[in-house]
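pinned: reference chain
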Amino acid sequence: MTKVIGLTGGIGSGKTTIANYFKEMGVPVYIADDAARAVMHSETVIEKVKKTFGESLFENNVLNRAKLAEIVFNNADQLAKLNAIVHPAVKEDFESWILQHKNEEYVIYEAAILFESGRYKDCDFIILVTAPEEVRIERVLKRDNTTRAQVLSRMQMQWKDEDRILKSNFIINNVNLKIAKEEVVKILKILNIKQNQS
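pinned: its structure tokens
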């Protein structure tokens, strides 16, 4: 049975960098955010989004993601409505993806809101990627066309690291990439030992 290793971390923690390193090490990686973007093109999801948020978010049947982000990122109720549409579609997509990797010992399921969505309950182990808040803010400001206030607003919608730590099996402090990569190698060794014992 393929083990599912959840990989998560707050915005700007560098979890995608860590996910890519796992991929380089030969571990199949499923990126939930990429899947969420992909399912937004499915007719079923488009219809549900139209019904919930209105036709005005679409131009030539293409979703204006920036407009939708404005609605949901500052409103927990609206975000919950969007998640109720997207999460089941992503779960279905992941279930078909994992079937394609059923001969693997384990796969990585990378998701920013692994805990908030409840998906952590479906994981055999959880890896948390952390970094100091100021480092995370700087990374996001460099990466995205956004403001400090918007980054802080998005952070407030996510769990705090101290809460994530309580439910995680492994912690990678991602400030120095070389050290973070060494942590990935250590975790893979531990997972291989656990796999051999089970």
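why pinned: The two ends are 10 Å apart (CA to CA). The chain has a mean pLDDT of 92.
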